[in-house]
Amino acid sequence: MAEITLTLPDGSSRTVADGTTGGELAAAIGPGLAKAALVAEVDGRAVDLAAPLHDGDKVRFLTDRDGESLEHLRHSTAHVLAQAVLSLWPGATFAGGPPIEDGFYYDFELPGGATFSEDDLGRIDAAMRRIIDADQPFERFELPVDQARTLMAEHPYKRAFMDRAEEGDESEGEVGGGATVSFYRNGDGFVDMCRGPHVPSTGRLGHFALMRVAGAYFRGSEHNPMLQRIYGTAWATRKDLAAHLHRLEEAAKRDHRRLAAELDLVSWPDVLGPGLAVWHPKGAIVRKVMEDYSRARHQHGGYEFVFSPHIARSTLWETSGHLGFYAESMYPPMELDGATYYPKPMNCPFHLTVFRSRQRSYRELPLRLFELGAVYRYELSGAVHGLLRSRGFTQDDSHIFCTREQVPQELASLLAFVLDVLGAFGFEEFQAKLSTKPHEKFVGDDEYWDLATEGLRAALEAAGLEYTVDDGGGAFYGPKIDVDLKDAIGRSWQLSTIQLDFNMADRFDLEYIAPDGTRRRPVMIHRALFGSVERFFGVLLEHFAGAFPTWLAPVQARVLPVASAHAGYAAEVADLLVSRGYRVDVVDADESLGNRIRKAKAEKLPYVLVVGDDDVAHRTVGVNARGNTVERDVALLAFADRVEAEVAPFRDV
RNA sequence: GCCCGGGUAGCUCAGUCGGUAGAGCAAUUCACUCGUAAUGAAUAGGUCAGGAGUUCGAUUCUCCUCCCGGGCUCCA
Fold it and tell me: Nearest CA to the C1' of B36 belongs to which residue?
């Protein structure tokens, strides 16, 4: 057998037998070059460690801290999970088991429609660790499709993956297209159909934890059978695993539902029903400040305010199309005086009726209507999630009516406006997505779609915003830009959206009189900035972990007299600050100073003002700011100016 | 809606192998009047989510319903 020379990343070269696998090489190199090497890369492409290497291959070993290598480690751990489950549940079959962010999952179907319970995770975990301790090598082999089908005779979901691959769709990742199908075998004959690659052997694994059991529809469609999914997390080292688990604990502390209770902001009384919240005074004042700021910005930005009722006759929803398409998400109707009324799931139709209330001229366009409109949607019970997904919520809803020619300019200024306001709330990192014309089922001509899509794209680029393109992901009535933000545990939530609508103006027969006297159809743009005030508040709460910036904080400063003798001066300090428009309270010396400070810190107040003898004598305050910097003898008026500087930009827009 | 898990004091939780319950914090009262993250004592607070069943007896076992959490689906 010919010998080949491989160039290693440190510049050295190594001579090995032709056909040596990456895994053998990794083992041979040992602890020196790549102590924890888990996967090799040849010519910039990840290769299977079981695949043979050939002369001239430039091999780079990725360390186990590399994301890509972690992916293989997680995928291999998923295999071990499947191996364990199939050995513990004879007759079980399996579907897909990919690596995901932070870990992996695998989908199973148990005999007789049995389900996993969380108690099963312990013995699955134990079985997995036995496989890992045995350090079984992963061996790759390939079979022609017909033999592959025979091998997977007992596993219909695997065969379904093959069907999809044979049709040329490789999106499911389990198996590549082509004449052969690849498999991995390890240990006691466990075989999984898999594209690979894997770590060399199971002994490389072990820093994992099974997290939870969930139902999951095959291929994500509710028309398919529901499989039993097990989620796990897997890392290269014990330390990384511990750090991840610690991050999860920390994230749980930022959960907006937990903070809402701890900070006395919002609650969800059972008597109201799922997905319905009440706002307590401290939550409500934050919301009011948010809404006031939003209104001020909108007024400044050329919007006109409108109001609309919470219910409307069915005729409106028939005209808008909601009853036809979305009736199951609407709250059920009320029959009254021979008419049928529905609670509104959207504000759009009302704004259309405002436009249509009289004849409109091109001189009025763009006409920007704005409303903080409460809507009700009957979300699936399993989807309700605190303030982030509720059944009653308030959209900061805007509908802009303009001419075709005005679309590009209007979109650019809209997006700039959206990003500027998001920035004011401290959001700088978000994910933007441009969704284009659906491949099937859409309304409007191509010229319209191109104009609108390019308008959106130009707006994104003018804003210097990175974005992804969801090809065909637009609504049937027009393309859109969505802006998503992540919550404390990394789940994305859609906040802002800008949508072109080629449909609604037709349905409501909107017209304006053009300069030449003809009647023209205006273009309609839907735009929500917060998305929903409730959701935005929830994401904001998690973003700041409850420590709102001064302009938003429910209590901006608390005055603590050192002893009751200082209560008079404390009240004076508070009165002065309140008279200047700040939210300030006083807590008397019924408890020790230390305890009152501790409580104020737990409430995450921006400022705690301690006043004692010295302060009474010199009209000063002791300032304990968030972060625990303590300054003594600050002149009262100087402190007031400091607050003013923080708050003014959000009041005087 | 579907799969898994949960619901004990305002909050965080313990407990009862079936004999109607406890802690810490919070609340209330009293005392303490204190210079930067827990002063002390006392008091009050629970249909053990709701309903049905089994039982002499159910918070505990069984079933149903409601609600909450994590996923899946959905999100106009």
Answer: A594
Smallest CA–C1' separation from A217, nucleotide: B72
Task: Enter the DSSP assignment of A362.
Answer: G
A593 nearest nucleotide via C1' and CA: B34
- ipTM, two decimals: 0.91
- For A46-76, the DSSP string reads EE-TTSBP-TT-BEEEEPTTSHHHHHHHHHH
Q: What is the pLDDT of residues A62-72, one digit of tens each?
A: 544 445 578 88
Pairing of strands A584-586, A557-561: parallel
User: Cα–Cα distance between A111 and A92 in angstroms, integer?
Assistant: 5
Which nucleotides of chain B does any protein CB come within 7 A of?
1-5, 11-12, 26, 31-39, 66-76
Sign of the CA dihedral with A504 first, then A506, A507, and A513 last: positive
Q: Which helix (H) or strand (E) holds A342?
A: strand A339-343
CA distance A173 to A164: 10
**Which of A91-105, A354-368, A425-439, A465-479 has maximum average pLDDT?**
A354-368
Are A469 and A433 in contact by the 8 Å Cβ rule? The answer is yes
| Close Cβ partners of A446 (under 8 Å, ≥ 6 residues apart) | none
d(CA A341, CA A89): 54
Q: Is the CB of A305 under 7 A from strand B?
A: no
How far: A127 CA to B1 C1' (Å)? Answer: 34
pLDDT of residue A35: 36
Taking the stretch 127-156 of protein chain A, residues with Cβ within 7 Å of any atom in nucleic acid chain B are none
Q: Say yes or no: Cβ of A393 under 7 A from any atom of strand B.
A: no
Which residue is closest to B7 in terms of CA–C1' distance? A270
Measured CA A580 to C1' B42 distance, in angstroms:
43
What backbone torsions phi and psi does residue A458 show, to the nearest 5 degrees? -60, -40
Within residues 570-609 of protein chain A, the ones with CB less than 7 A from nucleic strand B are 589-595, 597-598, 601-602, 608
C-alpha pair distances (Å), A458 with each of A429, A453, A455, A467, A646: 20, 9, 5, 12, 34
Spatial distance between the Cα atoms of A250 and A489, rounded to a whole number of angstroms: 9
pLDDT of residue A139: 86
pLDDT in tens, A167-225: 665 555 455 556 788 888 888 789 999 877 788 888 888 899 998 888 899 988 888 88
Is the CB of A527 less than 7 A from some atom of nucleic acid strand B?
Answer: no
Q: Are A480 and A474 in contact (CB under 8 A)?
A: yes
Is the model's pTM score more than 0.90?
no
CA of A261 vs C1' of B10, distance in Å? 10
For chain A, give the number of residues: 653
**DSSP assignment letter at A364:** G
The kind and range of the H/E element at A593 are helix A593-602
- CA A271 to C1' B24, in angstroms, rounded, equals 29
